[in-house]
Amino acid sequence: MKTYKFIYALSVAAVLGLSSCGSDFLDTPTDSRVELDTTEKLRMLLVTSYPQQNYGWPCEIMSDNIEDNNAPDEDGLRYNLSPSDRGDDEMFRWEVCVSNTSGDSPSGIWESHYNAIAGANAVLQVLDNWEKEGKTLDSTQLAIRGEALMIRSYCHFILAQVFCHPYRGDAVNETLLGVPYIKKPETTVKPDYQRGTLKETYDNIRQDLEAGLLLINNSLYTVPKYHFNKTAAEAYAARFYLFTREYDKCLLHCNNAFGGADVDTKQYMSKYFANLDKFYTLSDHGLFQQGTEQPRNFMLIPTYSTMVRHMSGGVRYGVIRDALNSTIHGSSPAWSRFQWRNTSGKGGSFCMHPCFNGCSYINGKPEYGYMMGGNVAEQFEFTDKLAGIGYAHYTRSEFTGEEVLLTRAEAKLFLKDIDGALADLIVWENARRDCPSAVGSEDMFRDLTIEDIREFYVEDNPGYGIAKTINIDQICPSNWTISTPDEMGMLQCIQHFRRIEMLHTGMRWFDIKRLGLEFDRKIGKDGRDHLGIFDDRKAVQIPAEIQAAGMQMNPRGEDPKKLSSGSLIFVGK
């Protein structure tokens, strides 16, 4: 059997179109390559072939989950606070992020996901070559191929969600830019990559997903939740088909992830809320949520990330004001009667589900502090304790029981099973009532009903941007449509619960794009901006260093005021 050498760094640089220091390259021994000559080496390479950076913060700060403390509030008060770094200013304004190229930036997303793709492609090439040499792959090698295909599909999917417009059906996708879909390791320093169309990108994502799903075998893994295990693969398929509006397939894969259509999904809801009285620090909360022993975690991805520091740094940008009142402090048909005293000094009260009492923290002073949910935690790896230096880690709960449940509710709704969708929403909400803060408060809850949902989710009522106009049919026309006020109320409820559930994860940005949501943004003293339904800025501009290497940019209007989808009035300082 031949051996195949894999130059990992070269493959990554070629994929990204980046150049590295010439002396570093020349100083590298020519035979410092990994010889991929055994099944175990292929398996071990895949362990490191998951994205090592986090898309959470860049996507979160671009969404309506974050607001600017330096903009006047409803009383005209504003502050003079600094961002965590200059890149946060750029991402908040939907500008090209050139001041930050770390992991928590568009550059980091691009680099880390193409790094992972390079590793997956190296494994796939070796397996393909073995077959060409007449070798019949055994069950372990087939399972390795399945995992590599899933990694390649997933990474391109995330890249498409960030750097492309949302899926809009084959006809429109033919007119939109995709991302380079890389299927082979590169052997040249500066290959010529074409982005192709969004249709081509999604066709390739689908092909790898469907082929890989058939080969996934949990027996390959020692700790399955750090890999594309069978449940995680089904959850990813469900997310993919939700975004492409193939609701029948989405429902099938949701049920597969749970182990069947009739399985009691309560077992896959977080036990976090029942344990709130056992946590003392924000890290306690986050580490519990990210634990491998939690049934709700279908797949975990360890990343290098200072996301928590961005959320608690200069506190210019945070979950405040309307963003806070539509998430952690948001009301709903089930808990609109829970009123809590406002400690900001302005009097009054706010509404908050009791499960959030004790599981969210404020950073900074009450009048401008950033509220942070307990689903995030940094784990710091010291490389030198005396110097206090090392690496900040954050583990993503990438696929969870809660996401799959809310995904299934949306699929059922469009498939006209409104009662089934309601039943899933009730499971999600009831799981949050089992918490110490809710003891003795049962009479304050209301059962979720279709009638109450319809009346609650009316545009501009209860305000705070909870109910935004959903333009999903304009984004991607489908035979599956919402046709009644009851159905629209249910869809509003689903997007609201998804927004709460996936706060701090960046998934809200993806929902904004696929649902065609638009919103206004206050920036600084006088700045106002509007993100429209078809706004070009929803397709994040590719990193500047990738542009410099010759990659085709996402289109932008020369004058932002002339954008057909959004108008930039003035950006203040």
Could you explain how this protein is built, in words?
With 573 residues, the chain is an alpha+beta fold. It contains 21 helices and 14 strands. A three-stranded antiparallel β-sheet has the order 4-11-10. Strands 12-13-14 form a three-stranded antiparallel β-sheet, with no helix packed on it. Strands 1-2 form a two-stranded antiparallel sheet. Helix 15 (401-414) runs antiparallel to helix 16. The protein is globular, with a radius of gyration of 24 Å.
Number of helices: 21
- Low-confidence spans: pLDDT under 50, at least 5 residues? 7-32, 558-573
Radius of gyration: 24 Å
Give the % helix: 25-40%
Determine the mean pLDDT. Answer: 87
Strand percentage lies at: 5-15%
Question: Major sheet: order of its strands?
Answer: 4-11-10
Shape: globular
Distance between the ends = 64 Å
Let me know the largest β-sheet: 3 strands, antiparallel
- Please give the number of β-strands: 14
Category from helices, strands and their pairing: alpha+beta
Using brief descriptors, characterize the structure shown.
573 residues, alpha+beta, three-stranded antiparallel sheet, globular
